[in-house]
Design a protein that fits this description.
Helix content is 41%, strand content 14%. With 408 residues, the protein is an alpha/beta fold. It has a 7-stranded mixed beta sheet with strand order 1-9-8-5-4-2-3, sandwiched between helices. A 3-stranded antiparallel beta sheet has the order 7-6-11, with no helix packed on it. Helix 10 packs across helix 14 and helix 11 crosses helix 14.
């Protein structure tokens, strides 16, 4: 039988045709195609400006700099997220302050945000231990589901904090019909191959602030006062001035051409993934897989299912603690892999990774929900080309492997 990966990007002839046009033009670096892609993505998310970058990580870095985050500042980030989220904070010289997440949505817990602010900071938002000033909350919209943005916005307004949305996985996600980038905060997207649409690698900052957009476009191109394409339209032989310490975070027109073709399929890709996620939901119940909890979607939320992440039920599996359950989870994944079915852990409990564990001295139980999700989460294959027969095969294999390991 064919192997089933966790994800396969969805391409057709349009991507190759768009790339061929760029190659034929002779301009393959950042140029008009990047600008067109930025406009398409921004319009889709109901915001004014898109700033393309090489990845969501570099997009986060640019956005934090545009928010004025730097040395002497703290940023609250969820502990259950890919390591790029807190890493981007460190790139600025600021310090990530971890907050736990909710067990049902896997997203940052607003109660934990408020607890941290009350317990760790004085009335001027100065960290009582380090002297750093609390500057920003990073709300990660994980796996295609928005965090509780209305409540997080309210907390930020109460304390005078900025919010940055790490929407690497959540392009197209909504709350009550409102796109994730339309909540008044800058949002950063990823176009990695495991995301809903892809440019191979790539990212983008979305914002309604024209000045910040212009600043980030300067920073992403070494700090140049004039973009490469604008310079070549004028006196191309003259070099621009460089008034900022910038970076080389530029997307290419080749990547943007792929993105433009992908954008034409965005609704089809999202709707198809949602249909397949709904089928998983139904099959899990019909097949009696009571040891697997499917993703939870709060009322009014539009989940794009960048990943279909479930959680194993420790009690139904007869496990005494998270370590035992995590060991069983890993055995399940290994045996599924031997059957040609790829799975993945949801994402990291970042506070348990070596860099942050050694840097901060965290114990796994310091963020209990993140620790649990790190040990019990499992991502099932989900992509446009996945058939209903494939999905039944995945779940039947999961049942069979569970029986093999634990008996009936």
């Amino acid at each position: 039988m064919d192997n089933l990966p966790v994800m396969i990007p969805y391409f057709d002839h349009e991507e190759a045709e768009e790339v061929a046009k760029v190659i034929a033009s002779g301009w393959v670096a950042q140029g008009s195609k990047v600008a067109a892609f930025e406009q398409m993505v921004a319009a889709y998310e109901h915001v004014a400006h898109g700033v393309a970058a090489t990845s969501c990580t570099t997009a986060l870095h640019l956005a934090l700099l545009a928010l004025g985050v730097g040395e002497g500042h703290d940023c609250i980030v969820p502990s259950f997220t890919f390591t790029a989220t807190p890493n981007s904070v460190l790139y600025t010289g600021a310090t990530p302050i971890f907050a736990d997440v909710t067990a049902d949505t896997y997203n940052i817990d607003p109660d934990e945000i408020e607890r941290i602010i009350r317990e760790q900071y004085d009335d001027n938002l100065i960290n009582k231990q380090t002297g750093n000033k609390l500057k920003t909350i990073i709300a990660v919209n994980l796996f295609g589901l928005c965090a509780d943005l209305p409540r997080i916005n309210a907390i930020a307004e109460t304390y005078g904090l900025s919010i940055l949305q790490d929407s690497a996985c959540a392009f197209g996600a909504k709350i009550d019909g409102r796109p994730e980038a339309d909540f008044g905060n800058m949002a950063c997207l990823s176009f990695h191959p495991r995301k809903s649409i892809t440019t191979g690698e790539g990212g983008m900052v979305l914002t309604n602030d024209a000045d910040r957009a212009a600043y980030m476009k300067t920073l992403r191109s070494h700090g140049a006062t004039v973009s490469e394409i604008d310079r070549h339209k004028q006196a191309g032989y003259l070099m621009p001035d460089f008034n900022e310490l910038g970076y080389n975070y530029r997307m290419t027109d080749i990547q943007a051409a792929v993105g433009i073709a992908q954008m034409r399929k965005m609704d089809f890709i999202t709707n198809t993934r949602r249909q397949k996620a709904a089928l998983y939901d139904r099959l899990i119940g019909e097949m009696g897989i009571d040891f697997l909890t499917p993703p939870h979607v709060p009322k009014g939320y539009f989940h794009t299912y960048q990943s279909y992440v479930c959680v194993l039920d420790m009690e139904r599996l007869g496990c005494r603690d998270i370590e035992e359950a995590a060991h069983l989870r890993n055995e399940l994944m290994s045996k599924l892999d031997a059957r040609g079915i790829a799975t993945r852990v949801g994402t990291h409990a970042t506070h348990m990774l070596g860099h942050y564990r050694d840097r901060c001295g965290f114990a796994p139980e310091d963020f209990k929900v993140s620790y649990m999700l790190d040990g019990l989460s499992v991502t099932l294959p989900l992509y446009v080309q996945l058939t209903e027969q494939d999905q039944v095969r995945v779940l039947q294999a999961l049942l069979d492997v569970k029986t093999e390991l634990l008996g009936g």
